[in-house]
What does this fold into?
Amino acid sequence: MGDSLQQLASMGPAGRPASPDEIAAAITFLAGDAASFVHGAILPADGGRIAVRSARRFSAGAGSGPGRGRPPAPAGRSRRSSRR
It folds into this structure.
């Protein structure tokens, strides 16, 4: 593997790039009968990079709305109606 890939992978939670067998296992699961009820889902086989990025964004209060860094609008009043 190239040095750039190794350096990038070392910064992720797994600390290494995925092996071909690990990626193949994810593909085999999605293509097999065990995933027959899985529809429209994304299965990131990225060693935890997306999970860490999402956790950082959530803890920083990114986005808006309940649970996302902004309190809900007062009862009976929407955010749009409170702006003039």
